[in-house]
């Protein structure tokens, strides 16, 4: 019976490949999250706009994005979207890291659709009297949102946003289908080169579990440190 080869995970070329994959997965998570949050906030405000065309625009974004699998988004932004660009820009992209850029765009847009609904729910959880107070102070829709509603709503929204961050972290593994050398891709490469399947995927599983537990711990800490206040 073959023994678990710890040396594969602790030192050497294959250790470096797995660690590089983990670091790239974390970079995908960070870049996608930074893009997704502002997009989600804008979409949530569109969904609550007093103007019907803007509400329909936000609705169309959320429903068209979240009802298509992330895998389809990933393949579209890697294979389909570049074909719409001028030849010079397309060649420039293919000479760079287009697979990583495509993965970040797909992950950010996909996650933003879900985060937008969480933010919208947080805003709707604020009592209507807060909106009326903003109007009584002379603020318009955006002024009421920025000065009165959003500071309260974002506090309510943080726990579900952290849960979406957890989903985003796990979804980074789908980037392997377009050749991004993230954690799952590198685990597959190490497995192919060494035939040590258990060690390779044990490392990947442990890494995903560790980061997921850290994100969950952050959510628990935030919930206890900043409990939602009822008005």
Automatic annotation (TrEMBL):
GO terms for cellular component: ATP-binding cassette (ABC) transporter complex. It is a multi-pass membrane protein. The keyword Transmembrane helix applies. Residues 22-219 form the ABC transmembrane type-1 domain. GO terms for biological process: amino acid transport. The keyword Transport applies. InterPro entries: AA_ABC_transptr_permease_3TM (IPR010065), ArtM/GltK/GlnP/TcyL/YhdX-like (IPR043429), MetI-like (IPR000515), MetI-like_sf (IPR035906). NCBIfam families: HEQRo_perm_3TM. Belongs to the binding-protein-dependent transport system permease family. HisMQ subfamily. This is ABC transporter permease subunit. It comes from Variovorax paradoxus.
């Amino acid at each position: 019976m073959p023994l678990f080869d710890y040396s594969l995970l602790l030192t050497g070329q294959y250790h470096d490949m797995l660690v590089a994959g983990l670091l790239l997965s974390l970079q995908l998570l960070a870049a996608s999250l930074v893009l997704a949050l502002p997009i989600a906030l804008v979409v949530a405000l569109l969904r609550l706009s007093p103007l019907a065309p803007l509400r329909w625009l936000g609705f169309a974004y959320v429903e068209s994005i979240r009802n298509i699998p992330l895998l389809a988004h990933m393949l579209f932004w890697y294979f389909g979207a570049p074909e719409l660009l001028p030849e010079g820009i397309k060649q420039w992209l293919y000479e760079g890291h287009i697979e990583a850029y495509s993965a970040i765009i797909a992950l950010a847009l996909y996650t933003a659709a879900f985060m937008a609904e969480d933010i919208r729910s947080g805003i709707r959880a604020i009592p209507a009297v807060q909106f009326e107070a903003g109007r009584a102070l002379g603020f318009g829709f955006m002024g009421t949102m920025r000065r009165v509603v959003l500071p309260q709503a974002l506090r309510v929204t943080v726990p579900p946003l952290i849960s979406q961050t957890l989903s985003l972290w796990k979804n980074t593994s789908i980037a392997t289908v377009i050749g991004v050398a993230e954690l799952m891709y590198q685990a597959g490469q190490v497995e192919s080169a060494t035939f040590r399947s258990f060690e390779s995927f044990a490392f990947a599983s442990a890494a995903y579990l560790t980061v997921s537990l850290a994100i969950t711990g952050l959510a628990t800490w935030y919930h206890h440190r900043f409990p939602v206040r009822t008005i």
